[in-house]
């Protein structure tokens, strides 16, 4: 699809390749802190609707936990902490007793996440490299919407750290780039975007994200890429 063909179909941008020149507004250390806090809260709503993590919990996370029903999960790049909190809720409803540690090197994300820390959830201002250096281990390591933020070297380090930290499985979920995903988000995000970076950053995330073949090529040996609904892609490594 050429740029002109994209415009004719309602997309004034070219989605044939990842646009690595884009930077998300919430990644700016000088962005409006009030808008950033609202963005963390609204993305929790968006993720609950479209991230597909409820299904991923059942198909990819819960089966990788110890048979006795207890386990330890690490959420890398936890942002506002909505996934970590959801994992504890889903685990409890399915009879598991888990501990979830959410880490993020951005102090603003940890400050937002720490406003709500239910039993079983801990948030830390750390990187994956910090945990590897400390010798920490988890049954399952997960992340949501982190891979598209990383350049090649950062992604290699992130995945390597993930392998070292996970005793059973690593599972990293991200957006699967497509015209359909872009159109759907452009339309739906207007309902929750007021006063936030949700719409701009979400659309930029889609443009930076991988197709399934692209992710397959970008992953190191031992990892596999899977498509998931809706408009998701999963990077998976089994120890």
Question: How do the helices and strands line up, and which of them pair or pack?
Answer:
Elements: H1 3-8, H2 33-50, H3 53-61, E1 70-76, H4 82-93, E2 97-103, H5 107-113, E3 121-124, H6 128-133, E4 138-144, H7 152-165, E5 166-175, H8 179-188, H9 198-208, H10 212-218, E6 223-228, E7 232-238
Parallel strand pairs: 1-2, 1-4, 2-3, 4-5
Antiparallel strand pairs: 5-7, 6-7
Helix pairs in contact: 2-5, 8-9
Number of domains: 1
The geometry reads as globular
Strand content: 15-25%
Poorly predicted parts: 1-9
Structural summary, described in words:
Helix content is 42%, strand content 20%. It is globular, with a radius of gyration of 17 Å. It has helices at residues 3-8, 33-50, 53-61, 82-93, 107-113, 128-133, 152-165, 179-188, 198-208, 212-218, and strands at residues 70-76, 97-103, 121-124, 138-144, 166-175, 223-228, 232-238. The relative contact order is 0.17. It has one domain (35-238): Rossmann fold. Helix 4 links the parallel strand 1 (70-76) and strand 2.
């Amino acid at each position: 699809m050429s740029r002109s063909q994209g415009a004719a179909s309602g997309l004034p941008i070219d989605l044939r390749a990842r646009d690595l020149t884009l930077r998300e507004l919430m990644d700016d250390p000088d962005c409006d802190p009030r808008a950033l806090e609202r963005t963390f809260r609204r993305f929790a709503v968006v993720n609950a609707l479209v991230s597909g993590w409820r299904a991923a919990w059942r198909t990819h996370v819960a089966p990788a936990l110890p048979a006795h029903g207890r386990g330890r999960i690490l959420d890398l790049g936890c942002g506002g902490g909505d996934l970590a909190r959801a994992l504890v809720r889903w685990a409890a409803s399915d009879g598991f007793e888990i501990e979830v540690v959410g880490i993020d090197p951005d102090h603003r994300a940890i400050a937002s996440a720490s406003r709500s820390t239910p039993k079983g959830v801990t948030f830390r201002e750390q990187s994956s490299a910090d945990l590897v250096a400390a010798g920490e281990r988890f049954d399952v390591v997960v992340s949501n919407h982190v891979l598209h933020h990383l350049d090649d070297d950062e992604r290699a380090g992130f995945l390597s750290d993930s392998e070292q930290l996970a005793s059973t499985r690593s599972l990293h979920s991200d957006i699967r780039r497509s015209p359909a995903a872009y159109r759907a988000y452009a339309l739906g995000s207007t309902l929750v975007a007021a006063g936030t970076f949700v719409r701009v950053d979400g659309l930029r995330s889609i443009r930076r994200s991988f197709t399934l073949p692209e992710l397959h090529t970008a992953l190191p040996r031992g990892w596999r890429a899977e498509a998931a609904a809706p408009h998701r892609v999963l990077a998976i490594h089994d120890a």
